[in-house]
């Protein structure tokens, strides 16, 4: 048994979804049957999605805690040639703040609450309990890795894992580009009286978010614009009442990414919608 597979099995036994990395710290490419997602696989937040390929395909979405998969013949070659082990932070219920250099570490020590810390080749991983959308380059030398992403496993680290703080969540929407002008007809969609949230039960909000997710999922064209308009519509009703939770935002981001949108576009579209509605600080 390879050292990397031994580590992977140990992590999987602790409910940490794992996958092998090749040279360059990147996942193994999809097999020929799944190349360019021709198999139709659409990975969601926690599982590899409908594609049943037995190979370690679909990058982060291949991460698993199933020892029978990890030790299967289809995975055997990857473990023999693997350069490292990675894990899916979102699947493990955590968020990794990836600090790439000394300046980023200094910023984190002055800004973020102390938490479990793992030394990396050039910097540190600060690990918090809780999940959020993954976003690269939220500031110089700082990436956020959680849902729909992977992080290299290096060691358990030191310190006590703290709860994911608001300051990390807000990094995902900080300093958005200039907002696009909102269509006048859009702000009426899902709109309550005087812009206040009209729902009386959580069911109303959940139904509204489900309708928004379906609107994005049904888009056959102009997906980029549909995502922005849908975000705008949801925020026009629920953006001021404080009822939108991270789980709702994650559902919207996941639907958009399933249609091919990047995490960066989702973040920018959300920030632009907030700015168009006057919700940004």
Which SSEs are present, and which pair or pack?
Layout: H1 3-13, E1 18-22, E2 26-27, H2 67-70, H3 73-81, E3 84-87, E4 94-99, H4 102-111, E5 116-119, E6 124-129, E7 135-139, E8 142-145, E9 151-152, E10 162-163, H5 166-171, H6 202-217, H7 223-238, H8 246-258, H9 263-276
Parallel strand pairs: 6-10
Antiparallel strand pairs: 1-2, 1-3, 3-9, 4-6, 4-8, 5-6, 7-8
Helix pairs in contact: 6-7, 6-8, 7-9
Describe the structure.
By secondary structure, the protein is of the alpha+beta class. The protein contains nine helices and ten strands. The strands form two sheets. Strands 4, 5, 6, 7, 8 and 10 form a six-stranded mixed β-sheet that branches. A hairpin with a 4-residue loop joins strand 5 and strand 6 (124-129). Helix 6 runs antiparallel to helix 7 (223-238), helix 6 (202-217) packs parallel to helix 8 and helix 7 crosses helix 9 (263-276). The protein is globular, with a radius of gyration of 20 Å. The model is unreliable at 42-48 and 174-195 (pLDDT under 50).
Keywords:
281 residues; alpha+beta; six-stranded mixed β-sheet; four-stranded antiparallel β-sheet; 9 helices; 14% strand; globular
